[in-house]
Amino acid sequence: MHAPIRSSASASTEFGVVPPLSSEAYSALPPTAARLVRAVQDLSLAHSIEAVREIVRHAARELTHADGATFVLRDGEQCYYFDEDAIAPLWKGQRFPMEACVSGWAMRHGEPVVIEDVFADPRVPVDAYRRTFVQSLVMVPIRAANPIGAIGNYWSQSHRATDEEVQVLQALASTTAVALENVRVYGELEKRVRERTRQLENANEELQSFSASVSHDLRAPLAIIAACADLLRLTSADALDAKARELLLKIPTQVTRMSALIDDLLRLARIREAELNVAPVDLTALAHEIARELRGREPERAVEFVAPPSEPVEGDAPLLRIALENLLSNAWKFTRHTPGARVELGHFAHGDGVRTFYVRDNGAGFAMAEATKLFTPFRRLHHAADYAGTGVGLTIVARVIDKHGGRIWAEARPGEGATFSFTLGSAR
Ligand SMILES: Nc1ncnc2c1ncn2[C@@H]1O[C@H](COP(=O)(O)OP(=O)(O)O)[C@@H](O)[C@H]1O
Ligand SMILES: [Mg+2]
């Protein structure tokens, strides 16, 4: 999504919005100049061809006090009379070949046409004018190089357009060219944004159906594999030699690993979709609860757990619980071989009121040099034989912290434990 946002910024500087004049500056201008400035300002804000159409057709007539004005667009080899503002109907909605009308002449030559008597000029298709009020006209091309349209003014009385009138109309036409280019750029940007949105929606849908198929399609065969291995062990163990029996015993272990992996991936996908329900959360109390559960799972281990009281944070309680569970169970896990294991949830406040929380242990630790991409899925620094796991936990934690607008980082040394610190962004 970055590209369109950047190009939208450059579009608005290139074809920028003209700042409005102060009312004193405005009233000091001669009326024609004031009317032109208003048209330029309006055009700089126009995002649609309809808006440009409204501005041009009125401004074109009012600027020269003409009896009529037309706004013509080039449509391939034809002149399309897009709109008009006149004392009586002209040619609105009609198309004429480029060679058979005055606007076509102005566009083909890239220069203004001034005609005092339409019935005496060879460039005028007289038949088209016989039914109208027009006696005199001026037509200016929109953009001198490769014109994209034209603006015409018409008078019912004989009138030779002055240089000033031609110049004023030409100024309107130049601004109209920029406005039309603006419309094209905005249209292009909107189209791109719509495309990207659709791609994102598709990706999201794919992700959701992927999650669903992971849960059903992968779990079912896994259950069958586990059941078959069980059956084999119960019914045919005698027929197998020692090596085959050993291999058979590996199946349930790997099945358990795989189903943990599926669970973690599903959790990860759900967190991405979850909406934040922010309320005060006591992280210390949560951590004590989790520590009790961890202790209950491995009552034989003596782990000292420390968590001084803290003010509640603003956050989503279920998501913060998942994050703390992962951090604390890592600390619990990686102190497995540490005598006098100690796990701590601590916090300190910065001058600006933002608090940093940290989960610290004195376990296996790791070398910082190896700790790249620690918060991406499947990244593990320890061997599964020493410390079981899927390598998805820290990715889940990082996503939860990220959803809260916070930051997470790690510090560790091999054999000297690890500290995972995080902030919760605006949720303090
Ligand atoms: N407290 C910790 N002490 C040492 N290493 C850790 C700690 N927490 C995480 N790690 C390292 O980061 C890796 C990724 O952690 P995680 O995503 O939770 O996966 P898992 O716990 O399934 O291995 C771990 O495999 C381990 O190598
Ligand atoms: Mg983990």
Description of the molecule:
There is one protein chain. The chain has 11 helices and 13 strands. With 428 residues, it is of the alpha+beta class. It has 3 domains: 2-191, Beta-Lactamase (2-Layer Sandwich), CATH 3.30.450.40; 209-273; 279-422, 2-Layer Sandwich (Heat Shock Protein 90), CATH 3.30.565. Strands 3-2-1-6-5-4 form a 6-stranded antiparallel sheet, with helices on both faces. Strands 8-10-11-13-12 form a 5-stranded mixed sheet. Strands 7-9 form a two-stranded antiparallel sheet. A hairpin with a 6-residue loop joins strand 5 (136-142) and strand 6. The longest helix has 74 residues, at 163-236. The two termini are 29 Å apart. The relative contact order is 0.07. Bound molecules: adenosine-5'-diphosphate (ADP) and magnesium ion. The site of adenosine-5'-diphosphate has 21 residues, from helix 10 and helix 11. Residues 326, 330-331, 334, 361, 363-366, 374, 379-382, 389-394, 418 line the site of adenosine-5'-diphosphate.
Strand order of the largest sheet: 3-2-1-6-5-4
* CATH homolog superfamily of the largest domain: GAF domain
- What is the molecular shape? elongated
Percent in helix: 40-55%
CATH topology call of the largest domain: Beta-Lactamase
> What count of structural domains?
3
Total strand count, please? 13
Helix-strand string: HHHHEEEHEHEEHHEHEEHEEHEE
Total helices: the number is 11
For the report, how would you describe the main beta sheet?
6 strands, antiparallel
Strand content: 15-25%
| Hetero compounds | adenosine-5'-diphosphate, magnesium ion
CATH structural architecture of the largest domain: 2-Layer Sandwich
Mean pLDDT: 89
- Rg computed from alpha carbons, rounded to a whole number of angstroms: 38 Å
